[in-house]
Amino acid sequence: MSVPQTAQDLINGFEDEQKSVVFTALSDYLQLSLFADVALVCGSSAGPAAERRLWAHRVVLASSSKFFRDLFRQDHSEEEKDECSVTVNNCSPTNLSYFCRFARGGSGQGACPE
Prior knowledge:
By secondary structure, this protein is an alpha+beta fold. It has helices at 7-31, 58-64, 66-73, 78-82, 93-103, and strands at residues 38-42, 52-56, 84-88. The chain has a single domain (7-103), classed as Potassium Channel Kv1.1, Chain A. The protein has 5 helices and 3 strands; from the N terminus they run H-E-E-H-H-H-E-H.
């Protein structure tokens, strides 16, 4: 095991470890449906019966995408903040799930729960 040579090395090591802890926790929370606060609804031309909902965390989506950041910044009533869903047309549930995984740290492991 190497000893950090500078304070910056120590900080960089802590940052890498902290990122891992945070991304692992976010992934675990989502898999357990803890704190998920937005439903991403995959629209389908086959109608509402073919739609799928993928649960996600608004803060993760907003941190990873200008589209979601701008969307969630809009003023909403308190009721709308509690029950948020976003319909994403022309996107397969598989592709949307890949985006969710990427947003949680790019690991590509685990799917967004339905």
